[in-house]
Amino acid sequence: MSAGPYNYSYIFKYIIIGDMGVGKSCLLHQFTEKKFMADCPHTIGVEFGTRIIEVSGQKIKLQIWDTAGQERFRAVTRSYYRGAAGALMVYDITRRSTYNHLSSWLTDTRNLTNPSTVIFLIGNKCDLEGQRDVTYEEASKFAEENGLLFVEASAKTGDNVEEAFLETAKKIYQSIQDGRLDLNAAESGVQHKPSQPGRTNLNGDQAGVKDNCAC
Amino acid sequence: MASLWRNQNETSILIPTTKEFSNVTYYIIRVCVGEVKWTVKHRYKEFFNLHNKLVADHGVSKDILPSKKVIGNKSNQFIETRRKALEEYLQKILIFLKRTMPKVFVEFLDFHVYDIYFLLQELTLKCSAEIDFIVSSTKTFTMTPLELHAISEFLKCPFPEADHLEEPLDLGPILDMCSQLDSLIVIGSSNDYLQSNIVLNKLSFDLTPLKIHNTFEMKNLKLNMINSLGSLRTTLNMLKVRYTNAKSISDVLQCDVLHKNTLEGSEKWVGLHTLDLSNNNLVEIDLTIALAENLRCLILNDNMISSITNLSHLHKLEELSIVNNLITVCDQLHMKVGNIKSLNLSQNNIVSTKAFYKLYSLESLDLSCNKITEVEELKFLSKLPCLENLRLTGNNVSTIVDYRIKVLELFGDRAGDICLDSEKPSQPELDKVSVLSALRVVKEGKTPDLALDKSNNLN
Hints:
The structure holds 2 protein chains of 2 kinds. Chain A is of the alpha/beta class. Helices cover 31% and strands 23% of the residues of chain A. Chain B is an alpha/beta fold. Helix content of chain B is 27%, strand content 17%. In chain B, strand 15 (389-391), helix 9 (403-409) and strand 16 form a beta-alpha-beta unit.
């Protein structure tokens, strides 16, 4: 039983946003379960997923809030932006309207998160090349103009899904290392869970080692 | 409240009676200024001291005070004669000093407590002396409705005839202070104020001169007596309105709005992060709560609210407390309140935890003193990933055998993280929980399937 120390040293909060039916819940499912969920029901309000990943030798627990895309839930899902360290903004490459709405999603994100929040743009359903409605170049340009990370992924095949979540975590971790992200700020979306002394840490937690030999 | 300057001719002083306290005779003085009446009690010695000061500084003739008597001053007849003489004395002094009203005389008759003008004079002195201290400290400053009423009345209509006074009244220091307050508390009452017939809750006051930067609290007041609460909209961080006659949130947040059924952008309480409306007569959380869109903490304890509504627009809400209300069933709470961390629904009529099953952000949940009877009804909490504090005392469920073990078992791997009824699980408890889960695995032939655990164990 995990009554003892935490088996991860950070918690990062993510939020997944985007229009209805772009595959937000499927991306989450693919990431946490490594499976494609074919008949995914509409999300009511919010869903939640978690997974522990490793970035630069640090175990990080991702707490992922998967929001409902339907307009009627907009009010309540807006509250989840608060305290998000990473925001995955998803559109569907086969439906231009979902791409066109990105600017409104981006406005919400910028308004409701803090400046250090990493925003990652995901063009989902890239397995459906034949039905493509938004070109890679166009979206890539949009991402660049707005300072977003960008990848095209497929929740169905699992292409780039892992990468998107991991890249976001790396970027956040980088911000912590650079000191751009203040761990103590209430809304940073990052919590530090220091490993407890006496616990063997294969990855050699630098601070922990130092503590042990300082007299 | 009293105003000597507006009721010069309706002012009277009487000594209708005397009273003996611990062998000393006190003369009960009754002051009437217009409608307002109050009583003051003084012994002869205090009259004597007053008289000496008035003789020395204000040219009062020496022999008008009835003389001292050392022996035999306890007889009823003597006291009666002296009472009449003292009454006459005070009446003479009032006529003589009405225009100047020296401080000793004002304080002798408590004019500085009940009369607008003299109360403000006193307040001015206090403000000029302490303004730096008051303004720089973040301590809550207290004002009575009487003081606020006096300021409002004075601003409405100053006293032009008051120039010939000892010290002309200058409201500067008061207004200066009022515009720099950090926190203010105003406490009213429906009873008579001190020894007078003034009722604080019947005094109207205006908050326009006030500029409060942090917290405004009012207690025991009647909201309809307060004008322009709305002037605090842009500056307040915290608003506490308790023990008032408020029936709806609109009564408070739209107190100064004529057409209450529409919400205007200008009615927003932009800075407000904490709103406490405890101990009122609220029956619902109405739409107007959206006017306080930046709320982080909402406290609605001790009202008559039966359901949780209209909170979905409060994106920043983290803490919600609705203790001792009439909440029975609340379905699908995650569609009504989003990213909330602390929820206190103690002392309601909740029977099941079903409504909470997707409030994934919840860290602290207080359901003490509700109507939960079965452990079965608690299983909906088992998937809340952030839950750390859970209170269930005062429910029937907490009296069943092995209650703690049974509740903790619901949380599987996370049992060790749950602080149940303010107590962390002990090692023996955790061991029992492990044994129970192991037994269940054997019995059911599979591991308890919590989707959450699976994802946890992936890596």
